[in-house]
Amino acid sequence: MKKIIFLLPLLALVSCYDAEHNCKDFKNGKFKFEFDVNGVKKTTVFERKDGIEIETFEGKTDTSTVRWVSDCEYVLQKKHPKNMAEEKAISMKILTTSKNSYTFEFGMVGSDQKQRGTVVKLD
Fold it and tell me: Which tens digits make up the pLDDT trace of 52-73?
């Protein structure tokens, strides 16, 4: 019985743990996102500043507007979409942060399908 009484405060402290959310640290800067496509590692590098995100992937550069919905959520919209799929906005939600990276969830606005990834801040 004494062990249970001792464990209750410890359990309360652990259950109050909340993932780190220093999203403001990642609103601007240069970043790298690595992901797998059919077993092949791909890398995209992007820079976000003042509501604009410039992404370079496989030698091609694209620009999107960034609209922050909250400190940890934003919507990306391509400035010059080349097809119907690129016209759709992408919802981004930062789930956790660390000193130089964040884990996020993303998907087309209005879609229930979401994917996750981790971004590393380069500067």
Answer: 999 999 999 999 999 999 999 9
Q: How far apart are CA 31 and CA 48, in angstroms?
A: 8
How far, in whole angstroms, is CA 108 from its chain's centroid?
Answer: 14
Alpha-carbon span 5 to 3, nearest angstrom: 5
**First and final C-alpha spacing in the chain:** 53
Give the SS3 label for residue 19: coil
Q: Considering the entire predicted model, what is its pTM?
A: 0.79
Q: Residue 55 forms beta bridges with which residues?
A: 46, 62
Do residues 22 and 4 touch, judged by C-beta distance below 8 A?
no
Computed from CA positions of residues 92, 115, 100, 41, in that sequence, does the dihedral angle turn out positive or negative?
negative
